[in-house]
Amino acid sequence: MNESNSVLYVSICSAESSPGIYKKVTGFINGAKKNGFQSQAKIIEPNGIRGNIAFIRQILFAKEKNIIIRYIPKLGFIIFVLGICLKLKNQRFFIDVPTPMTNHLIEIFNGHNPRLQKIVNILFIVLMGSIPFLSCTKIIQYSNESSFFSFLCSKKILLIGNGIDCDSISPRLESPLWPAETLKLVAVGTVAFWHGWDKIIKVISQINKDETIPYNIHLSVIGDGPDLKILEKLVKNLGIQEFVYFPGFLSGSLLEEQYKKAHFGIGSLGWDRVNIKLASPIKTREYLASGLPVIYSTKDVDLAQNNELAIYVEAREDNKELKKILSSMDKRIIPHPLACYEFSTLNFDFSKKVLQILDY
């Protein structure tokens, strides 16, 4: 097979441990099929060296014309070599980079791995620089990359908003009553410091003690991650266990039930902590496609800051703007779920993104 419209997406991920990545890969393939591409995904379970070898083999022996991979920094030089091999076979090679490399370094530095491991990982990525990207056809990115990591390959970068498969999402048909005595919020994803959900927990503590505000705020933090214990401790220290819940990882109908109960979805509020100034989180898109308006920070590739379906909050540590917005929610009207869903199909669906990525 070497037809110009054949597509293979290769990624190491798991439907259980990394559902967001899994849904993105399968959603891309579905979007490609909608546009007439002969497309398939090769999902490789995370399995250390064996998983990496399987990843490399799938790329090296692929017959499709268009090969897309989710970038793995520790395989940087190997990916550079694979790009050369594919170019010699007249195949197109696309590297999907979920986070700009400079910001990825900050994530590593602030992570919970042993210090020596963090130093080794950072040194390897810095020493590789832009080399892994020099042999590819196009680099797919969702935020601005630094000049260091885009050296000699900046013209290959496609800055684009993340896509989702809207057909796989069933939007709710109505929103919960508002105004009401309780404003219900939901935050879904990996519980990590860059999501900044500690900010909204602190604001909830302040608002729920303010008797001049005619409602309380309840928040469900759905998911697991390295900072879950930190948030649980924060909630306990603030004495707001009755207002903030941690139901763990949910999917399918259980997650849909949480969406139906909520007035707003909470996006990432802490991108400033990893120096990201432009983003396009998948979860923001999934909220909207589910019929749920969002509150988010950091400029989004696909969202205007005055969009009535998404409330923009400047990413700051003092939380003043976030508190101001959450203190006056009774003056807002909840957008209709179908308006959220229709906006998503027009702006986020992979059927639109695929054509931009593959240049068809």
Keywords:
six-stranded parallel sheet, 360 residues, Rossmann fold, 18% strand, alpha/beta, globular
Structure report:
- The protein is α/β, with parallel strands linked by helices.
- Helix content is 37%, strand content 18%.
- It is built from 12 helices and 14 strands.
- The protein has helices at 19-34, 48-60, 76-88, 101-109, 115-128, 197-207, 228-238, 252-261, 282-289, 320-326, 337-347, 350-358, and strands at 6-12, 38-44, 66-70, 92-97, 138-141, 157-159, 182-188, 216-222, 244-245, 264-266, 278-279, 294-297, 299-300, 310-313.
- α1 (19-34) links the parallel β1 (6-12) and β2 (38-44).
- The longest helix has 16 residues, at 19-34.
- The chain is globular.
- The two termini are 19 Å apart.
- The model has no long low-confidence stretch (mean pLDDT 94).
Largest sheet: 6 strands, parallel
- CATH domain class name of the largest domain: Alpha Beta
Structural category: alpha/beta
- Specify Rg, calculated over alpha carbons: 21 Å
Total of DSSP H or I helical runs spanning 4+ residues: 12
Mean pLDDT rating: 94
Topology readout:
Layout: E1 6-12, H1 19-34, E2 38-44, H2 48-60, E3 66-70, H3 76-88, E4 92-97, H4 101-109, H5 115-128, E5 138-141, E6 157-159, E7 182-188, H6 197-207, E8 216-222, H7 228-238, E9 244-245, H8 252-261, E10 264-266, E11 278-279, H9 282-289, E12 294-297, E13 299-300, E14 310-313, H10 320-326, H11 337-347, H12 350-358
Parallel strand pairs: 1-2, 1-3, 3-4, 4-5, 5-6, 7-8, 7-10, 8-9, 10-12, 11-13, 12-14
